[in-house]
Amino acid sequence: MVLSEKQEALVKESWELMKQDVPRHSFRLFTLIMERAPRAKDLFSFLRDTDEIPENNPQLRAHAAKIFKLTCESVVQLREKGEVAVGDTTLKWLGSVHLQKGVLEPHFEVVKEALLKTIQEAAGEKWSEEMKNAWGEGYDHLAAAIVREMQVQA
Ligand code: HEM
Q1: For ligand 1, is residue 45 a contact (CB within 6 Å)?
Q2: The dihedral of CA 58, 105, 117, 37: what is its sign?
Q3: Which residue has a Cα nearest atom 8 of ligand 1?
Q4: Whose CA is nearest to atom 39 of ligand 1?
Q5: What is the pLDDT of residues 34-72, one digit of tens each?
Q6: Which DSSP category does 104 fall into?
Q7: Which of 9, 63, 64, 71 could pair with 26 in a Cys bridge, judged by C-beta atoms 3.0 to 4.6 Å apart?
Q8: Main-chain dihedrals φ then ψ at residue 37, nearest 5 degrees
Q9: Which residue of 103, 115, 149 sits with most ligand 1 atoms within 8 Å of its CB, as the best mutation to test the pocket?
Q10: Interface ipTM
Q11: Which one of 97, 109, 137, 139 would you pick to mutate in the ligand 1 pocket, going by the greatest count of ligand atoms within 8 A of its CB?
């Protein structure tokens, strides 16, 4: 799918909106991930020993914020270059972290659904099919790059 200039603008706009309350959206993202894949809980060091998702955990927030930001950046890169261009070192690091933690390819689909729902709720009436497809496309390319790197390192 080729992303339009308007779609890039929609993604940037919604990310700006989300930046106003990253803790809330991060908590929501993790709540949705855990609803969809309860067993994924034990993958995360900060969730392993608790029954509740912590509302103010810096690691949880860092993970969610990275997903939001890198997906947004991937949309921009896709528009500008036709491909995601996460730096080589970052990509290697992302591949190695997820491989070591035991993350599997299907987990990426769970996170995608949770991400789109989180953005939908954050965007409210600004949400649209165009916005959804743009975030989805950016995420798919980013996730595929991480999974490829995991496979290379496995
Ligand atoms: C760690 C990004 C998808 C599970 C990390 C870290 C980053 C990151 C940057 C390192 C955090 C740090 O050490 O500072 C991303 C991005 C994703 C993605 C950009 C999607 C595009 C996923 C998925 C799962 C997952 C699908 C599995 C449900 C984990 C786990 C850790 C981690 C378990 C280690 C956290 C810990 O225990 O401290 N991720 N991630 N990630 N990620 Fe992801």
Answers
A1: yes
A2: negative
A3: 63
A4: 63
A5: 999 999 999 999 999 888 999 989 999 999 999 999 999
A6: -
A7: 64
A8: -140, 75
A9: 103
A10: 0.97
A11: 97
CA of 98 to the centre of ligand 1 (A): 6
Task: Set out the domains of the chain in order of their start, with CATH numbers.
Answer: 5-153 (1.10.490.10)
Q: What is the pLDDT of residue 1?
A: 79
| 47 in contact with ligand 1, CB cutoff 6 A | no
> Which of 7, 124, 132, 26 has its CA nearest to residue 75?
7
Residue whose Cα lies nearest atom 18 of ligand 1: it is 67
The one-letter amino acid at 58: P
Task: Identify which of 112, 128, 110, 111 has the alpha carbon closest to the alpha carbon of residue 120.
Answer: 128
Read off the pLDDT of residues 84-127 as tens digits, 9 standing for 90 and up: 999 999 999 999 999 999 999 999 999 999 999 999 999 999 99
Distance, in Å, from the CA atom of 89 to the CA atom of 26, rounded to the nearest integer, reads 25
Q: Distance of CA 78 to CAs 5, 20, 83, Å?
A: 11, 25, 5
C-alpha 116, offset from chain centre: 9
H-type helices in the chain, by residue range?
A: 5-19, 22-36, 58-81, 88-101, 105-123, 129-153
